[in-house]
Amino acid sequence: MNESPPAVQLDGLARRYGRDMVLSEVSLTIREGRIVVLQGPNGAGKTTLLKVLATRLRPSRGSARVFGFDTVREAHEVRSRTAMLPVFGGSYPTLTGAENLELATRLYGLRLTPSELEAALANVGLAGAAQKQVRGYSSGMKKRLGLARLRMAPAKLWLLDEPYAALDEEGKAYVDALLDEARSTGKTVLLASHEPERVAPLADAVLEVSGGTVRRSERFGVPATPVQAVPVRGG
Amino acid sequence: MNDFTPVLLIAGKDIRQELRSRAITVATLFFAAITLVILAFAVGSDEAILTQIAPGALWVALAFAGVISAAQSYAAEGEENAFEQLLLYPIPRASIYLGKLISNWVYMGFLALILLPTTAVLFDLPLGSHRGALLLTLALGTLGFALIATFYAALTANLRARDSLLPVLMFPVVVPILLAAVRATTSLMQFGNLEMASDWIQLLAGFDLAYLVVCTAIFRFVVDE
Amino acid sequence: MSSDRTTTHPLRPRPLWLNLLAAASLLLVGAGFYLGLVVSPPDVNQGELIRIMYAHVSAAWVCFLAVIIAAVYGMLYLWKGRPMDDVRGTAHAELATIFAGLTIIGGMTYSKPTLNTFWTWDAKLTLTALLFALLVGYFVVRGLIDDRDRRARVSAVVAIIVLASLPFNWMAAEWFRTLHPAKSFDVSASGVSDSADPIFRWILLFNVFAVAVTYVWFSIERIRIGRAQVGLEEQRETTPVTMREAIDV
Amino acid sequence: MKRWAYGVAAVAILAAAGFMVYNAMSSSLVYFILPSEYAANPHDYDGRRLRLGGLVQPGSIVFDNEDLRLTFHVTDSIESYFVRHQGTPPDMFQENTGVVIEGRFEDGVFVSDNLLVRHSEVYQAPEEGEPVDLEALKDSLY
Q1: Nearest to C244 among A25, A30, A36 (CB)
Q2: Who among C178, C179, C183 is closest to D90 (CB)?
Q3: ipTM of the complex
Q4: Do B175 and C169 touch (CB under 8 A)?
Q5: With the C-alpha atoms ordered D134, D135, D136, D141, is the resulting torsion angle positive or negative?
């Protein structure tokens, strides 16, 4: 019986921006089903790390694998298993919320009925704004639309970049619910945040990113909840 | 989902956005029309010269507008960081190119359909009897232009000085299209000669097919970071 | 500064054969000059101007060769992702630009006494001007991208587009000439037709060979420097290597 | 498998492109009609621009240096038309050279605004009474 490959495997990963090394020599394995928080100051390399895993940025050196697929050579396989929530944006301002979500789901290869789309938007508290153009949305509403898009994606790995930013308390509760859902459906989550106090209790591990390196956080060392059994693929 | 669904989705999305915002139309339609008027005005009232330069004027106006339209279509993607998101969907990168190619082409075709009669009136040059061939020339010429413009606009989208860079990079590549398109239009409108135009139309088609393959094949390297 | 790493000199020691190649290039070009300026008789039609032709045609042919090679290295880079292929491609693109410039200067030098104008819309001259513009674009784009890998990728893409546009620009230049009234002359291998004294053709071919050898020499020198640059950059980046903990969660 | 299919399609499209371009290039891009072809159906070209190809008839060249007006007869040895061209004659312009002129007929006079000289070293105008080889003339003007 083969053990299924880890959700994330970074091997000596380094990424350069211009002349600066934003990430250097990161080696990290994350097993399937884990919820891991990346914390660290702005510019520490959290977003870069997420974007490498999302296939948006190529490693300058080393390699990144998602469920065993190389993010450069097998990018398509990686993309069909990951979904990313950006810090902000990702929607088209002249399209309505429903149209944006429909476009996203269809690009994920799904076909949702209008009522399913409505329900998905209602789920993040956008029921009333579904038919409004996104340019009229507040930044919090845009973020909620991003959450709806993320939830619809047929992904096993979620990459969340500052999911709580720009959200009110109600919005933050949606993120918490989303994380619960991830836990119960066995999704792997990598979450970047500079306010880890909120998620640390939910997470299996907190990693500290600073100056381009990643290490275990000393403040939040112990997993708060026991790790559930990981579903094994391919018998 | 087959590989062409995302192409149509992206093209449809672009067209719907344009119908809502009219951003590209506003930026190019009047600009192109003004270009025609200024050219007609500069030449003066000499009918012979007016009719002679008319096809050239039409394509120069279309070329200017095409550059702006392609650049604008990527600017719209960048507004809310939507392009970043678009690159993360499990779709071939080439389908993003083809989708934006179609929307740019449709837009340039629409512009051509407006500018053609405008040119005919301003430059005193009747459309002639080979309307079908004339439409084909416009279709192939604008396609060739959209192919290069869409490709290079993606390449320059996140570079400094992109607005002035795009035409500079594109121009030497599109010279053959401009030349063949002007010649085909001249043959049809001035000489009313289909036989004379058909060779140029074939050259346009050959150009389009060749660049369709080359640009589609290497587009993913342009957007990769 | 970490001293645990031995910093090797990035430039490899200069091999003997490279010096021999350099000497051979200089000798060949010198001989080409001698053949073109002294040995060659004046042409029946073009008179002494045939002597410009030897240099001009050689530069043009080598320029096209360099464009093709630059694009081939571009494709190799996209396929394999080896930094050295970018270095090689850029070296050839630089040489292509230089030879395109020389071709244009040669064409203008030829054009002034024959047509009393420095610029003429001759097919090959127009083509070379377009090519020159494309190559300048290549370097403008390179200059605007900071990230080394992305710069290499985009350069490779532009080099491929330049190559793809070459046949079309070639034809466009031909059409332009056939459509342009009068005042056109054929710069290409003109004057060195089959009917003429075979000595013209032999001298031309010798000059093309001499320039091609010089081009190979230049490209090797340029690639040596490029290799050293890549080596230096990599040294600088990997200097602070410390063994990092591999994290497993 | 899918990649393979796209590869085949790409090669096929490139081949089609090459064929089209080759096809267009092998026929001449300089299109024109001969004076005798015009004479056969002059009404087809009423009020239209056209390109006329032929030889410059010997002894017909008149160049007015002050008006910069060039007049000559263009002929294919069957029909001949009077041509008025605004501008200086190009360098290679002389009797019996091939020319392609662009313009339109006005009252039986061809008013040209574009004159291209075509070298026709091979083609010789026929002697009196010799048959006229129009195809050879056309070929020489391409």
Answers
A1: A25
A2: C183
A3: 0.84
A4: yes
A5: positive
